[in-house]
């Protein structure tokens, strides 16, 4: 008997066709492949459009699959912390000095220490106020918070080069024949002394100690005469005058000077003419600059009323003493570069006044 033909419904036929074509590629999946027409064109010597394809030279800078083998994919690092997530954590360098758990093995804990102290009758308190409330005679242990570790003391750098410096100074007034100067110092120091005296018919000359020299010869102006002298330090310096005189003086002990040089003397009448100021002209070169100004006036003046120009520090002022009208101002240069010393007085005096600088060279 002949086999009967298999009959399909329309619905069954559609399903059978769908099963048959399911493994086949779709048109979208085949869009990147050459068609039979493209192959035929190429075989016939035609050109295939390769615009969207990369050339071999363009791929030379890209990594191969083998070269990327040791790198993690985006999926593999998705759960790792980012740099921003780690900002609150300490680095290895920051914890380098922190003790490890093994370093603390032999040390007692806070609880163990408290138990041990309590066991021998010592009360552990947290504050001084708590300790003060304990009865008299009770032993206690103050568990204060430890002070933070102090940074190590930096190694000091090389000491600055030593230069001449003022180590002591003094001033005074004398009516008589003896000037006595007492200043602190040590052997090797030098004393610089400015003397201002009332001018007389015959000027009183100074008998200087051994080793002393004159830096500024007696300078006579108006009714006064001034001089600057220097010599080695001694606990007491005594200068004898040839006759009685009215004198004002100021002096300083200088350390570290190999030589002392005097500058130009300027009187008030010299240009520019001065009446309420005295100028000691600048002296060029490195060293410790000291400025002297000398004045004589019957108008009362105090140290507070006498000022010095910027960059200078007034260290002594020999004021008037009764009818001894001589004054002496001594200042030191505190700024780096040389400059004139200008001393301003409260009263006008047109003739009795001079200024001069001396420099102690190292």
Please give a quick description of this structure.
With 362 residues, this protein is mainly beta. It has helices at 10-21, 36-43, 110-119, 128-132, and strands spanning 123-125, 140-142, 165-182, 190-198, 206-207, 213-221, 224-232, 236-255, 259-262, 266-267, 277-280, 288-296, 307-308, 312-318, 326-333, 341-344, 353-361.
General description of the model:
10% of the residues lie in helices and 34% in strands. It has 362 residues and is mainly β. It has a domain at 165-361. Strands 3, 4, 5, 6, 7 and 8 form a 6-stranded antiparallel sheet that branches. Strands 9, 10, 12, 14, 15 and 17 form a 6-stranded antiparallel sheet that branches. The longest helix is centred in the N-terminal third of the chain and has 12 residues, at 10-21. The protein starts with 9 loop residues before the first helix and ends with a strand. The model is unreliable at 157-161 (pLDDT under 50).
């Amino acid at each position: 008997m002949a086999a009967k033909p298999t009959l399909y419904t329309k619905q069954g036929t559609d399903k059978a066709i769908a099963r048959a074509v399911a493994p086949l590629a779709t048109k979208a999946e085949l869009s990147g492949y050459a068609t039979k027409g493209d192959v035929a064109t190429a075989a016939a010597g035609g050109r295939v459009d390769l615009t969207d394809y990369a050339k071999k030279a363009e791929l030379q800078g890209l990594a191969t699959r083998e070269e990327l083998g040791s790198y993690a994919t985006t999926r593999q690092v998705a759960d790792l912390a980012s740099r921003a997530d780690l900002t609150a954590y300490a680095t290895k360098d920051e914890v380098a000095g922190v003790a490890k758990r093994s370093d603390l093995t032999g040390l007692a804990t806070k609880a163990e220490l408290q138990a041990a102290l309590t066991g021998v009758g010592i009360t552990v308190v947290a504050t001084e106020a708590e300790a003060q409330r304990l009865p008299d005679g009770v032993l206690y242990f103050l568990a204060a918070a430890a002070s933070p570790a102090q940074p190590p003391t930096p190694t000091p750098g090389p000491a600055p080069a030593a230069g001449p410096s003022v180590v002591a100074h003094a001033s005074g007034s004398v009516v008589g024949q003896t000037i006595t100067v007492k200043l602190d110092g040590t052997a090797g120091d030098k004393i610089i002394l400015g003397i201002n005296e009332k001018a007389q018919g015959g000027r009183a000359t100074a008998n200087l100690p051994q080793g002393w020299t004159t830096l500024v010869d007696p300078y006579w102006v108006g009714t006064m005469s001034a001089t600057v002298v220097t010599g080695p330090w001694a606990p007491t310096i005594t200068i004898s005058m040839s006759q009685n005189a009215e004198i004002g003086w100021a002096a300083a002990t200088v350390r570290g000077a190999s030589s002392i040089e005097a500058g130009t003397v300027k009187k008030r009448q010299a240009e520019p003419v001065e009446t309420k100021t005295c100028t000691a002209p600048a002296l060029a070169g490195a060293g410790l600059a000291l400025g002297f100004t000398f004045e004589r006036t019957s108008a009362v003046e105090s140290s507070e009323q006498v000022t010095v120009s910027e960059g200078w520090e007034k260290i002594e002022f020999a004021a008037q003493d009764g009818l001894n009208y001589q004054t002496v101002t001594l200042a030191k240069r505190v700024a780096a570069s040389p400059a004139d010393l200008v001393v301003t007085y409260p009263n006008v005096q047109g003739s009795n006044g001079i200024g001069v600088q001396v420099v102690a060279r190292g």
